[in-house]
Amino acid sequence: MKVFAFANQKGGVGKTTSAVTLADGLSRHKIKTLLIDLDPQGHLALSFGLDKSPGLYRLICLDEPLEKVVVNIRPHLDLVAGDKQTEKVKRQITLSDFRENILSDLLADAPYDAVLLDLAPSLDVLHLNGLIASDWVIIPTRPDALAVDGVKEILTTMAEVEQSGHRYQGYSILPTFFDRTTRETLLQFQELASAFGEHLWPPIPQDTRVRETAAYGKTLWEYSPASTAMTGYREGRQKLGGYKQVLARMLEVLNG
Amino acid sequence: MAEKKFERRTTLDPAVADLLSGMQQRQAESQLPRKERERLGKERAKIQSRREQRATYDLPPSLREEIMALSEELRIPASQLVTLALARFLRDYQNETIDLGIYKQPSRSPRYDWNLVFPDDLIRIKKKK
């Protein structure tokens, strides 16, 4: 089992959309996948056309077993939903012993091939739990200066986590809302490429379909599998970027 | 001894590298004078429009040479000569005025049932030494 965290302290960078799209993609490859919403906004459930529910609260505060808390939403895809009660989870964790490892311990024997954690854009104890529970951190970022600064913040936090003994298998930077026609995008992309090298994954093109899909409670695989955000830019005979290519990178990580 | 200068190489995801170089090329083009930009744009459009017309087949070298020689002699593009030849073949095949049976021999390929084996007087295939 591999645990992926989608993290960036900056909000609105595409963490939830990326987690939803890639989790659905993994499940379509028959990879048993669990999505966990660590954000009190509870948007993961809405993204699948479900109501918000206190899944994480029941798991951590009421000590209910994982198999009772998960909701099966698609073949090979389960969800631990979240809602505003997730705020109570943070308070409970803060009062607990070994508080940074609670999520990690809960997932230790989870019967999944991949677990995807959608972290909130904050730096609190739940966020830290997500980072400590994860093997691989995916950092979505818009190609703009503020969001790129959020990448540096996450990497600093990860370095602090590693100092406490946790070892990450790796991390990836995922550029989102990518508009290749603007000079600013090129400059930020060049900067990301020179700073992070192979850690930089192909970008997700800016696409109105992504906003529409959330409104319909569908994933991009269902609503618009041929959209640019899914298939990437056509460059000669090849396609560059898009969630399908990023999914291939994730599968490489999963298969070692 | 002069000090050697080593340059750090950044390894990039191949898709990221391709996208980045395409964007850099477009950015560099945008700095060119308008006439030069238009010329490059037209060239790109020409290449793109011809992409659907391109096909790759294995042909005996002698046949290719003959087509090229004919193209030179008649001053007609080789692509048009080949288009004519293929169109005539398809029409003959549809009208059943060409019989593939005389060339057919069983194939051992898992993908194809038959090979076409051409007589020397039709196509001079250079024998491997």
Main sheet specs of chain A: 7 strands, mixed
Largest interface: A-B, 23 and 15 residues
In terms of structural class, how would the helical and strand content of chain B be classed? mainly alpha
Runs of chain A in which pLDDT lies below 50 for 5 or more consecutive residues are none
Which ranges of chain B are low-confidence, i.e. pLDDT below 50, for 5 or more consecutive residues? none
Q: Report the average pLDDT across residues of chain A.
A: 92
Helix percent band of chain A:
40-55%
Count of distinct strands of chain B? 2
| CATH domain class name of chain A | Alpha Beta
Task: Say what the CATH topology of chain A is.
Answer: Rossmann fold
* Widest β-sheet, arrangement of strands of chain B: 1-2
Task: Specify the structural class of chain A.
Answer: alpha/beta
Q: Spell the H/E element sequence of chain A.
A: EHEHHHEEHHEHEHEHHHHEEH
The helix content of chain B is 40-55%
The Cα radius of gyration of chain A reads 17 Å
Q: What is the domain total for the residues of chain A?
A: 1
Number of helices of chain B: 4
What share of residues are in beta strands of chain A? 15-25%
Q: In percent, how much strand structure appears in the residues of chain B? A: under 5%
- Estimate the mean pLDDT confidence of chain B: 87
The major β-sheet of chain B equals: 2 strands, antiparallel
What does this protein structure show overall?
The complex is a heterodimer of chains A (256) and B (129). Chain A has 256 residues and is an alpha/beta fold. Chain A has 13 helices and nine strands. Chain A has one domain (2-254): P-loop containing nucleotide triphosphate hydrolases (Rossmann fold). In chain A, strands 3-4-2-5-1-6-7 form a seven-stranded mixed sheet, with helices on both faces. In chain A, helix 1 (15-28) crosses helix 13. Chain A starts with a strand and ends with a helix. The longest helix of chain B is centred in the first third of the chain and has 18 residues, at 34-51. The radius of gyration of chain B is 25 Å and the shape is elongated. The mean pLDDT of chain B is 87. Chains A and B meet through helix 9 of A and helix 1 of B.
